[in-house]
Amino acid sequence: MLRVSNRRFYSDLAHKYSSSVLLPKTSFPKRSNLEKVQQDLIPRSSQQLYKEQLNSKPLNNDSDLFIIHDGPPYANGDLHLGHALNKILKDVINRYNLLNGKQIYYKPGWDCHGLPIELKALEKISKKMKKDSSTVLSVGEIRKLAREHANSTITSQLEGFKSLGIMTDFEHNYKTLNHSFEINQLKVFQGLLKRGLIKRQKKPVYWGCQTHTALAEGELEYNDNHKSITLHLKFPIIKPSVQLSAILAENSIKDVKALIWTSTPWTIPSNKAISINTEFEYVILKNTKVEDEFVIVANELSSTVLSLNPDFESTNIVVPGSALISSQYTNPLIENSTFPIIHGDHVTSTAGTGLVHTAPGHGNDDYFVCLANGIDVYSPVDQFGKYTDQLPEGVFQHLKGLFVLGKGTEEILKILGGSGMVYYRDDNYIHSYPYDWRSKKPIIIRATPQWFTNVGEIKEASLKALEDVEFIPARGKNRLSAFIKNRNEWCISRQRSWGVPIPALYGRNDENHVIMDEESVEFIIAKIDELGTDAWFEEEEDIERWLPARYAGQGKDLVKGKDTMDVWFDSGSSWNEIREFLEENQITNRSTYADVYLEGSDQHRGWFQSSLLTKVGITPATVPAVAPYKKIVTHGFTLDEKGFKMSKSLGNTLTPETIIKGQGKALPGVGVDGLRMWVAQSDYTNDMSMGPNVLKHVGDALKKLRITFTFLLGNLNDLRSAEDLVKFEELNKIDQFALSRLAQVNEEVLAHYEQYNFNRVLKTLTNHLNIELSAIYFDIVKDRLYTDGVDSRSRRAAQTVLYHIFQTYLSLLSPIIPVMTQEVWDFTPKWIVKGQSNAILNGVYVDELAKFQNVGLEADFAKVWELRDQITTLIEKGRKEEKTIKNSLETEVYISFANPESSELSQTLTSLESELSDYYLVSKLHLNKPLDPSSAKFHYSNKVAVAGEFVNISIVNATNCKCPRCWRYSSISEEALCKRCDDVVVHEH
């Protein structure tokens, strides 16, 4: 009963003095409010902030201007996590540059043309009609529906982007369907034509059979598990060359067949030649089951070929490749056919037979080698991927109308199977094969008349321009350079309604009569500028209004072309948006349009490349070309927590809205700052995982930051002005150390920002916050903050450090979590705010911190903390293992050295002796003083090595009583305050 009574008495005393304890006070909310975030905090910290900074001073100083050019997202479908990742990364970079004193120009855009939008727009109508509406509606009607669909999608996506806290003016955006954009794009086309880089050719192109249009390389996806049926086929050589005839005669061989290998049997009717390599040696194989049947293959591949058909063996008769040239063979399925054997550099000895089936209408290598040998392009396949009536006479004629990758292949295999031509058939050949990225179906290569940009002509200048471009990650440079090195042409024409027209005129009765010259194109562009692109697609019996004076009177003999431009040409010419902005603001001293282009790593094949090619292509050949960007940053793609790509079919998708708002207990919402923090903490240069576990860690980290800002605001509430701050030299040593470390962390974080290493930004800050501030400094200074006199130097010193921590963290976190930092700023004392609407406008917090760095002091404290760990271990033994104490304040510490005079550590501790008990959170510390073990109720000792020296540590129970106000064991009795608290209470009273 006596113990209970004493405890109650002590509690009453503590309550009596609680009002004199200076606990933190702030009205900063403990948690965010979603409605306030969306309706107030995001607009002020994003759209309003963007306008304020952009209009804060004239825009004619290029050194103050920072521009990220927005790679336009496609205006089709809802926002996904990849959209959020992309926009947030750009926003973090923009905000960091704003923090660094730059003016930010960032104009969001949308890519609006293309077949996917056209198909989506027609989908509903086609369902109602129960037929393909594109065959019923006019081009004008299709374009109207597509435009409406694109604009509707943009409206939806725009609202979604706003919710991500993106700092821009979304109302002033660019769209590739805008009239001004289309005119600028046509002028880029005109510039390429002026340089002689635009040409029309009938040649093989990638073709989407479902989408009925040519495809660019950037529109392909490669399926590494595509299965094809392959054939080794025998073609009789009917007219051997003189040299080959001599070899055959010498070895009593009457006839020999060329053995080819193909993974596209459907192209056999289009065969026009067999390519060999004159540098190779070939060998003749003999059929042991059929008399006088011989085939010829590359010597290096003969063992592989023989392993496929046990009926054959090698004759060891070697034929030089040169002996095959000028020989002629026949296709037994085409009556009276004769085709040449030609040399091709593309023929390799890594696979196949060393003799390559060559169909110039269905392969690029085939096309070029035939072109060099005067062999015409031939492609009896239509836009639907079906055989036409141009098939060779005979057994192939019944294939007309069959889909080449379906029933057509089946029928070809039947024909070849009964022809005696098959040496070997493989029904399970797994290999990489290109698919249409829209339809997700395999493509074919098909020769059609198309418009091309001559990339080969500007390849060297493009690669030269890339030398001045920085890549993050660095591997991107090799990737983009490789794509350009391997590209000679860019097929820019598409067979669809929804797009920017290619300004070509054709003979009404002769499509090979083409008019496209500088005069006609300039006139047509001017007319489109007057009437709009839709007018170009209007049906007209007389197109006189589209003709310049040179072609006057031919209006009824000509028609307008129906081809539209590749959407990569659309987005690739979007740098015009920056050009116009710079010209409007008379900024003439800028060498490169954009500081940064940032997109997914797939854009090395797409937008990065098309932007470079269009920019270099319109630059006069006599002028050094400059890329439209100074820096290219690429990011990976989003995966679920198991490492699988997110897709609706797998049911593992997470939308930005779901992550922000949550989805029940299984997936609590983390808010827009949580989504942004996930982006920043991820290694965006690789693929990134997202899921409930990841979001839990993000939510915990965000909560920790909110608690930290609450603590800082609460303890700064009675600071009245900068005059209350304590000068550095008057601070406690631990305060000086804390500021020195803060300065170092600030420097490291800014360096990480500069290199766009955002995950290192957060990791550095998190480590500093958790390990140095929360676990050590905050814990230590709470006693001073709460129990020292309100205006005492020691308390103001601690507040001075918190002030600098507050300013630094607010500065460094404002690019990543702008909503929280805006809300913190709203509750910040006015004398700190100084009328600024947002903390980021105060700039980087460097000048104040630079003078605080003290390497020697940090080295001293490294030893102090090493000793602290040893002391804590001994205290924990008493608290956890033997339960003789409840907390460290119940103890006193004795520290001694064998030779204190010669000990560097002892000298360091002596210089800090007055503060050491605070550092170790004990009631008293004795340095190099004798201990009487008999006076202690408990006693833990150890001899440990610290900083290379041996130290004797002893932990004993505190000899004084617990102060009812500060809870240190420093009172002469439990009923009395310790001297410090008594002085404070008396003074305050």
UniProtKB/TrEMBL annotation:
GO terms for molecular function: aminoacyl-tRNA deacylase activity; ATP binding; isoleucine-tRNA ligase activity; tRNA binding. Residues 47-690 form the Aminoacyl-tRNA synthetase class Ia domain. The keyword Aminoacyl-tRNA synthetase applies. The keyword Glycosyltransferase does not apply. GO terms for cellular component: mitochondrion. Its EC number is 6.1.1.5. Residues 735-895 form the Methionyl/Valyl/Leucyl/Isoleucyl-tRNA synthetase anticodon-binding domain. SUPFAM superfamilies: Anticodon-binding domain of a subclass of class I aminoacyl-tRNA synthetases (SSF47323), Nucleotidylyl transferase (SSF52374), ValRS/IleRS/LeuRS editing domain (SSF50677). Keywords: Aminoacyl-tRNA synthetase, ATP-binding, Ligase, Nucleotide-binding, Protein biosynthesis. Gene3D superfamilies: 1.10.730.20, HUPs, Valyl/Leucyl/Isoleucyl-tRNA synthetase, editing domain. GO terms for biological process: isoleucyl-tRNA aminoacylation; mitochondrial translation. Belongs to the class-I aminoacyl-tRNA synthetase family. This is isoleucine--tRNA ligase. The lineage of its organism: Eukaryota, Fungi, Dikarya, Ascomycota, Saccharomycotina.
